[in-house]
Fold each of these.
Amino acid sequence: MDDYMFEVHLNRCKSIKEETTYLEIFSYSDQSFNTIQENPLTDDEFNDYLDQKGTFSPPELPEGLTRLESMRLILQKNAKNPETLSPCHISLTAKQYKSMVRAMHLPQRFIESTTCVGPFFCAAWDQDEENPHLQIVMRKSDLRRRLTRGWELTLSHDVNTATTTGFCKGTPSSDIVNCIAHLKACISQTAHPLLLPTIIFSHEVSFQNDIKQREARNWLRQIEHALSMGRDTHYVDKKGVTQFDTLAAEITECHSQVIWKNPKAYLKILAGLEGSLHKFWEELPKQRRGKETRQLHNSMLARLAFYKARLQGIDSYANTTLQRLGVQRAALYNMMAQKESKLSFEMAREQRKPAYASTRDSAAMKSVSLLGAIFLPGAYLAAPAMSESFWIYWAFTIPITLGVVGGWLWYERKQDYIENQENNKDGQLEKNMEVDIVNKMRVRIQQKISTWEASPNIRLAGNENDPRRIISREWRGGDVIA
């Protein structure tokens, strides 16, 4: 089944080119013979390196010198292709990839991990009972600005010969270069197959995670001061208006920084590493359980326990920050809703003024029309063609005109007085509208039926000077509940 799945996924993958090097670390009974070599690996030398032929043949050892452990890796430390860690992409040719898996006893499942998301770790023994190999797959990949970033690692450890082989790749944004440098400094500890995975995990959960959480908490305090206390002028423009858009964007960015490198995901990786350490120690031959190996194994377990406590602290700290961010986000949305309500109210008030002006203009036009209708008969009667007596104009038209004009002036003044009264009432209503709404809400809340049948009277039982006095509640019904 594994062979078929490997062939299917290999045919599905697309090959890309990356700069490749090899790393060989050999540790001998005499430490003066220990060697570390890292050089470029060309396509012509690839198969010779896998088969340890030609220039890669094991050196002849002097009499009495034995090789204790070794590590042979194929490295791509600065993978720069944009698709280097994309799903269904491999940075070797299909033939080279297949030869590498076969010759180094690497897990065939490794090719299926190209689509994995987030931190990934898996370790298991192969099916060779005579010469078992511990096979490890570890990977983390992500996408940023259309470029993949991260790293991947696969290892195979022969428990009988203490030989570890594998393939490691990382983008420039990863810490693979520093991890390999760290590995070279531990030449006498390469017998443990989980040394390199532990080093990579240590760099992933470095002190930068704690610093980012502290920076996010300080950022949160600035947001709280701007929203709840109004003391931070960073979010206030020149006109004294709080920039809610900036606050909303920074709350989102702060939230992203808090959940960066989620501790829960790395706690699961840590649990996998601990389980793999126990698996390795259970299957390790007794002749390899020397003092140094046992000390290294216990040291790695202690380090993982330290990282576990550290990640749990970060997780608790981040959860508190996220809860406080949620409170500030809710407060921001409430403030924005209040501002929008006030703006809508102001717009409605401004739209009402032109409506009132239009109503007054219409009333004035009606008044002019009414005056014209009243004066027209008088002018008609005063015409020489209608009456020979001009006194009629003085006797009827002028008194009527004065009465109408006086009545019109009295009506207009009354309307102005009424309008001023209404404007004053509206202004007072606008000022007290929010207070009235809040008071009404409080009254409604107070009028709701309480789950308690009666309010308790708190009394203290025992001597007043006794610090162990019992506090009890005496209910109006007469029952006492201590």
Amino acid sequence: SSFFNWWYFGICMGILTALLILNYIQDNLGWVLGFGLPCISMGFALGLLLLGTRIYRHQAPDDKCLSVRIAQVLVDALRNRLLCLFSPAGEVREPLLPRNAQFKFSDEKKAVIIVESHLSSPPLQVQAVDAASAMEEANGMVLLLPIWAACLIYAVVFAQPPTFFTKQGSTLERHIGEDFQIPPAALQGFISVTIVLFIPVYDRVLVPAGRRATGNPSGITMLQRIGIGMFLSVVSMAVAALVEMRRLRTARELGLVDAPGVALPMSLWWLVPQYVIFGVSEALTMVGLQEFFYDQVPDGLRSVGLALYMSIFGIGSLLSSFLISTIDRVTVGRGESWFSDNLNRAHLDYFYWLLAGFSVGGLVVYLYFAQSYLYKKT
């Protein structure tokens, strides 16, 4: 757990550097230098990676890939789904791992591998154990899917800060002092700053306190951490909707609705709460998901677990685009798009409230599956 905390801390430090330094360089000193510095940095990082190639540990895979074994077992299981497996003494064989009491498909003995009682030579006994083990591993992978699906709405919310939050900020007063103006994209730095400040506090203060209270080495379970982060994403969307309502009211009161190029006399600090809340949400949910999908898959499928984690945000981004395009098509037909080019005539507040509602629904579904999930025994 601590490893994933500090790993994500390092990523956010890099993001923060890019937002605070590179954005300023690109806006004020030119794009050549703005792209040249990241190129040099990546070359340096690649050199460090290559220097360590001789000391990296690499474990060769088994003769047969675990994913292939699982696929073969599933095919055989479906072929024999109506049959039961009995031991030579006539007793029903028990599952190897207790977690499958949660997985009814296996518990009902409808998905088993047939091993005839007279085929009791050691090679076949080993094959039977391997098949049963692979079935348990396949069941474990299937049990991850409801959690995966319930987190998709969080990924839709995750796609909004780099886009609409930034667009909101571009319409506000962003000057600090008389000469310095914060670039709109740099507002994302509030999320990274929050994560960089929160993770050390969480890892060094909150986790030990939680460990003493619960006895869990991580303070709270992985699913509890994810759930708290998802709840905070709901709060972040609600706060963003309230701030947007205030921004639109300011534009109407000052007669600036049709002057989108004029910065509203409303400070960018109004946006800080939604950024900070979302930053804490991201620190909890993102790290929790990484740890969960890495820890709960079979050892031979760790890369698949991380792929499942990444796919949440890939599919979530696609769902966000689909949702926005659908809403835009519907609202344009009614004469007033929620996503008008003139943000003073748009209704991002409605969109944020909609996402908050979807997030509540997603959180309820998540809690339903999370409370019954049985962790893999280590």
Amino acid sequence: MPKRDPGLHNDITAQDRDRLVKQLFAEPTRSLTFPFGGRFVVVLLADAQTIRFSILDDDYPLSTRESMALVDRGQNGFGTLDSVVVPVDGQSTEAPVHVLEGDVREHFDKLYESLWRQVLGVADYRMRLAKGKLSADAFADAQAARARLRKRTPEQKEILNICAFEADRANFGAARAAAAPGGAPVTAVEMGGGR
């Protein structure tokens, strides 16, 4: 297991999230593409209250298929994972996180937090890189930010692989998720984990 650098894990504030939302709103596509754990992710401001992190499959950029997505509906401000979208039999299936069992939900919450940390780091790097054209110090700051981003890759791969395994193993019980709104959390076995 990769060792964690505590300097890479400062708390993400509401102001950090708001800054990203403003940046996304200013983008013509309302999205940013960024690297994550050897893959690419598109963060999209779908509407004023919905952010979607789409993790693209291994074939990107040849294909823009989504292997998984994490959705935040921003009901109390952004920062809480509301649902996970995975392909099941070729169709996107969205499961609210409240139907996931504790360990599975915890893994997806960690992935969600790691995605936020990475996109904020990438936005910071791009800002520093733009300033780097004006001064050597700013360029050095950008290179240090780049090194910090790269240090995260092993940890990102690990959580991404765990979540991909959980999604594949559980299929999020498409039928169970629809049948159990507000019910008790669904376990991996109940969701088809035994297949």
Amino acid sequence: MKNHTQLEAAIEGPVLNLPLRLKDGLATLLQTIHKKPLATGYLGRPSKEHVKRFEELKSALSLPGAGFCGALKEFGTIIVADGAPEDQIAKALACGFSVVDLRGTTD
């Protein structure tokens, strides 16, 4: 991605950011550009529901193949940043998700 316009145009539907973080400042910052719903994001005081949702997503990311695809089907785009596990990226691509790779560009 070279600029904000390209990032905004590349995002489809709700977004899951990898690596998955409970308090994800980068995901929140990127949302100001793409303006799509987030699976995660920074909350100063995460509620019990937010923590539960985070744990559900964390479990879904460890599922193999079709389980991974089915559990995450609500997302249109997966944004990958530095530190994202390679196996999760590979599974997202195999499922046919739109993957926006920002590794090496978020410093």
